[in-house]
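Throughout our pipeline, every protein is held as a single compact record rather than as scattered files. Nothing more is needed to write down the fold, since each code stands for a local backbone conformation. For reference, a complete record is included directly beneath this paragraph.
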Amino acid sequence: MSSLRGLSLTAACLNAGLAPSIKDYGARRTEDGFERTVGVNHFGHLKMVQSGLVPMLEKGERGRIVVTASGVHDPDSPGGKQGSAAGLGALSGIELSGRGCEMIDGGKYDPDKAYKDSKLCNVFFTRELQARLNKEGSGVTANCFTPGLIVSTGLFREQNPLFTKVRWSEGRLESQDGCSLNSNKRPPPSTPITNNLSTDYFSYRS
């Protein structure tokens, strides 16, 4: 980031992410020691903001930070109901073990929950960031959103290959082999994000 200081930016999309295989039986680490999922999906974004991102956006017109979150952060959402539910507890993992913790809530490593927790961190991070920007009198806005089920990127590169073949088609969610899955809805258009909105989480509308 130091090489970029002085630039004027209009927007920054914090989109780095990975979804670990549910067959991961032990936490893997980033180079600086964080559990890899939350390290990439959340703490990497935090580091970028702390490294001078906001001043560059303040130089631009209507600077905006957009964080890619996911509907699975909500245990009541369709995706959030599957498998382990997101929940950060009292942050005892971070409080007691710092970056050496396996899970933020202090529990044992659960790859499914680790991903959902990281997406919950995205939402809390965005809201706290906007509160701090407002307090500082900054004109930069912060939003987060869910892109829906996107399997055509590298996000699910560690998942079962069958899962990554899933696609939306003709009003139902199906695999490329034509096997109908669990939805009868076509993907609605994404909700537009406008310049005068802040501290909001955007998702697809059914």
About this structure: Residues 167-196 have pLDDT under 50 and may be disordered. The beta strands are 11-14, 64-68, 141-145, 166-169, 172-175, 200-202.
